Amino acid sequence: MPRRLKLRVRTMQMQSTKTLYTYWNTIRGSRSAPDRRDIDPTRIRDALANTFILELDSADQFSFRLAGSHLCTSYCRELKGRSFSALWHDRDSDAMDTLIRAVTEDHAVALVTFQGTTALHTKVSFETILMPLRHNGSTHTRILGAMSAVEEPYWLGVQPILEQRITGLRLIWPDEVPAEESAREVMASVVNDAEYGSSAQPAAMPTTVYGRSARRYAHLAVIDGGRN
Known about the structure:
The chain is of the alpha+beta class and about 230 residues long. The protein has a single domain (about 5-225), classed as PAS domain (Beta-Lactamase). It has helices spanning about 5-10, 15-25, 70-75, 95-105, 180-190, and strands at about 50-55, 60-65, 110-115, 125-135, 140-150, 165-170, 205-210, 210-215, 220-225. Strand 8 (about 210-215) and strand 9 (about 220-225) form a beta hairpin. Helix 4 (about 95-105) packs antiparallel against helix 5. It is globular, with a radius of gyration of 17 Å. It holds the Pfam family PAS_5. It comes from Devosia marina. InterPro entries: DUF1457. This is PAS domain-containing protein.
C-alpha cells in the first residue's frame, strides 16, 4: 500500500471502513469517483455486511438503495428505501446536507463519527464513511458508504438506534487541495451549535493527522489531497 494511502487509512478506526475506502480508491483509478458498475461485491466480502449505497430520491433527499445486514441489525429494521437524511438529529441536519454536497459535488470523502441512542437511553459510537459514486456519468445521485459500531454492546440489534448525533467529522480530498469553502460550510453548520462551543467562526489551524498535512476547524479536520 502506498505511504500516503496508508497514512490516510490510519485515520480510520474500523476495518470495514478501511477495506471499503482502499477498494474505492483502487477501482476509481485516475477518476474522482468509480462507476457503480465497477463495484464487485466479492472483492469487499469482509466489509459487505456494513456497506451501503445511497440514492437521491424524489424528495431530493438521500435514501438507502442497499444496506448490509449488520447495518440493518443495528437499527432493528430493513433500511432499504428508508431515508438516510432522516436518521440524523435536527441540529445536525444542516451539517449532513453540507457534508453530502462536499461528497457529491466536490468529490470529497467524508469520515463521520456519531453517537447512537436508543429509547432506553443506552448509547453506542459508530464510524461511517461516505464516498462519491458515479451513476449515468454523474456523482450527484449515488453515494457509497460503510457504517460500523466502534464497540458492539450486548443490546445492539435488540434495542434499535432511534437518534444519532455527530461527534466528529473529517473531510479527505484524495486528489486535490480541498475546497476551503466546503470545509467552512460544514464546520459552520456544526460548530454554531452551542454544544460544540462558540458561535464565532474559528479560523483554520494548521495541524497534522497521522503525518498528513491538514487544517483543523474545531473538531473538523480537513486532510489535504494526494493520489497515493
